[in-house]
Write a structure and sequence with these properties.
Elements (H helix, E strand, L loop, with lengths): L1 H17 L35 H12 L11 H4 L47 H4 L1 H5 L8 H9 L2 H11 L5 H12 L8 H8 L1
């Protein structure tokens, strides 16, 4: 199954990510990003190796809305996770870069995704950093290998500069996955009718 192959790819790439060089200390440290946690919500658990910073969130937000991460530059993360619909889709099965390869599942909402301890229907992915790799390389979604995404971003001076500011290092798979995960953790929803009833009385 596709999901099984994604798991294998995630495990392989995870080994590569853990071997990446540590950030350089000769650049200005990024600014701390303070999550706005609503009353009644628990504090979000943030990975020690991907602290929330203003620069990381900015980089992740740009990547989230940029089709540069799809094979033919037509699909972004926001294409299937639409902000106006709680970062979900409006169709049962989202369309990827190839019309002849429809997806197999709908795109879930990303609202409050930072609180989830397991991702995908099977729960086989433990964090947002690794989750990013699956839709990126999936043939029916964005169909772009992470190494090709790195190459594209390195050709974009704005992304090169942002990566250095955010993570004090050059663009690599670690930068891409961590930046997107950082932005996704800011997608906190607490103003639905249910939220207002449950938390505000």
């Amino acid at each position: 199954m596709i999901i099984q192959w994604n798991r294998i790819a995630i495990i392989l790439v995870a080994g590569f990510l853990s071997a990446c060089d540590s950030p350089s200390s000769d650049r200005e440290a990024p600014q701390v990003y303070h999550l706005r946690v609503p009353a009644g919500f628990p504090e979000m658990v943030i990975p020690e190796d991907n602290p929330m910073t203003v620069e990381a969130v900015e980089l992740g937000k740009l990547l989230f809305y940029d089709p540069i991460l799809s094979e033919d530059y037509t699909v972004s993360c926001a294409s299937c996770h639409i902000q106006e619909y709680a970062f979900a889709d409006t169709v049962a099965v989202s369309a990827g870069v190839h019309d002849d390869r429809p997806g197999r599942r709908n795109s879930p909402s990303l609202a409050n995704v930072g609180y989830q301890k397991a991702l995908f229907m099977e729960g086989g992915v433990p964090n947002l950093e690794l989750q990013v790799l699956a839709p990126l390389g999936e043939k029916s979604e964005m169909d772009l290998q992470i190494r090709d995404a790195v190459k594209r971003m390195k050709e974009n001076r704005a992304y090169v500069d942002l990566a250095r500011k955010a993570y004090q290092r050059e663009i690599d798979p670690w930068v891409i996955t961590n930046a997107l995960a950082a932005f996704e953790r800011t997608l906190i929803s607490a103003d639905s009718p249910f939220d207002r009833y449950y938390y505000q009385g």
